[in-house]
Write a structure and sequence with these properties.
Layout (H helix, E strand, L loop, with lengths): L3 H16 L4 E5 L1 H5 L12 H4 L1 H16 L1 H10 L14 H11 L3 E6 L5 H5 L4 E3 L6 E4 L5 E3 L5 H6 L14 E3 L10 H13 L2 E5 L10 H7 L10 E6 L4 H4 L5 E4 L2 H17 L1
Parallel strand pairs: 1-2, 1-7, 2-3, 7-8, 8-9
Antiparallel strand pairs: 4-5, 4-6
Helix pairs in contact: 1-12, 4-5, 6-12, 9-10
The structure holds zinc ion.
The site of zinc ion has 8 residues, from loops.
C-alpha cells in the first residue's frame, strides 16, 4: 500500500509527465465504470456471479448470431437486459477528469473496454469502444455503426423482417457490443494498435488488462517503435497492483479509485499550466 505522502508525490509526477507528453492516450476498463454504479461481471456482486445462467447465455450469443441472426434478435428483444438501464447511468469524476484532459489538448485518444458510453457522455470526443457500445448497432459486413434509434427492431419483429439489414450494403446488423468468441472488429483492432504504437504516454485506468487482445495494447505501447524518440511512459491507476505492475510493464502505479485520483491529477496539471 502507498501512504498518502507517496501518493501525492506520484500524482504530481503523473501531472508533470502528462504536461510533458506529446501524445498521451488512456486505456480504461471496468474499474472506471463501477464507480458509476455499473455492475462488473465477476466481482462478488457481479452480474454473472449472481446469475450463472446469464453467463451461459452470454457465452452462446455469438454462436447463436452466426447460426441464426433472426433468433439472436428474437432473444435480444424478449430476454432481460443484462446490464439493466444503462441509459440512466451518469459519468463520475474519473470520467470527467479524462474528458478535461482531452479538452486541455493533452489526451489525444481514449480506448475503453466499457460499453456504457459514459466517456462520450462526460465529453470525450475521440473514444474507441474496443468492445463495442451498448447504444450502437454494427453491420458485420461493412462495419458501419448506427445509433440504436436508427432501427426499430420491435417493429421489424412484428413484420417478420428480423434481422435488421444494413442500409449501406445490405449486410446483417447486430449489436455493436462484442460478444464472447466474437473477434474485435478489424477497424477497431487496427486503430487501437496504431494509437498504442504511437503514444508517448499511456494512462491505464481501472483495468488489470488481462483480457486479450485488449491486454496487448499496453505491451505494444512499451515496445520500441521506429521513429519514436523516447520510450512510452506507462502510468497505472488501479485499486490494486496488477500483472502490468508486477511485470513492470507500467512505470509506476498510483493505487486508488480512478474517481479520486484522476481529478487530483487534472488539478495538478491545471496548476502547472497556470504558472
Ligand atoms: Zn453494411
Amino acid at each position: 500500500m502507498q501512504d498518502d505522502g507517496g501518493k501525492v508525490d506520484l500524482i504530481k509526477r503523473a501531472a508533470a509527465d502528462l504536461a510533458g507528453s506529446t501524445y498521451a492516450i488512456a486505456l480504461t476498463g471496468a474499474g472506471v465504470s463501477t464507480e458509476s454504479g455499473i455492475p462488473d461481471f465477476r466481482g462478488p456482486s457481479g452480474v454473472w456471479t449472481k446469475d450463472p445462467e446469464a453467463e451461459k447465455r452470454a457465452y452462446q450469443s455469438y454462436a447463436k448470431f452466426q447460426r441464426s441472426p433472426k433468433e439472436y434478435w428474437e432473444d435480444r428483444l424478449t430476454g432481460p437486459s443484462l446490464l439493466g438501464d444503462l441509459g440512466k447511468m451518469a459519468p463520475n469524476p474519473g470520467h470527467y477528469a479524462l474528458a478535461e484532459l482531452e479538452r486541455m489538448g493533452i489526451l489525444k485518444c481514449l480506448i475503453t473496454q466499457n460499453i456504457d458510453n459514459l466517456h462520450q457522455k462526460a465529453g470525450n470526443k475521440n473514444v474507441l469502444d474496443y468492445h463495442g457500445n451498448a447504444f450502437k448497432l454494427r453491420c458485420v459486413s461493412c462495419s458501419a455503426r448506427f445509433e440504436a434509434g436508427e432501427f426499430d427492431p420491435q417493429q421489424l419483429r412484428k413484420e417478420g423482417r428480423l434481422p435488421p439489414l444494413c442500409p449501406r450494403c445490405g449486410g446483417v446488423v447486430k449489436l455493436d457490443v462484442v460478444h464472447f468468441h466474437e473477434p474485435i472488429p478489424a477497424d477497431m483492432a487496427q486503430r487501437s494498435l496504431e494509437e498504442a504504437g504511437k503514444c508517448d504516454l499511456m494512462l491505464v485506468c481501472g483495468t488489470s488488462a488481462v483480457v486479450y487482445p485488449f491486454a496487448m495494447l499496453p505491451r505494444v505501447a512499451k515496445q520500441r517503435q521506429p521513429g519514436k524518440e523516447r520510450e512510452t511512459l506507462l502510468i497505472e491507476i488501479n485499486a490494486e497492483p496488477t500483472a502490468l505492475t508486477e511485470a513492470k510493464v507500467s512505470d509506476y502505479l498510483i493505487q486508488g479509485k480512478t474517481g479520486q485520483i484522476l481529478p487530483k491529477i487534472v488539478e495538478e496539471v491545471s496548476k502547472r499550466s497556470n504558472v
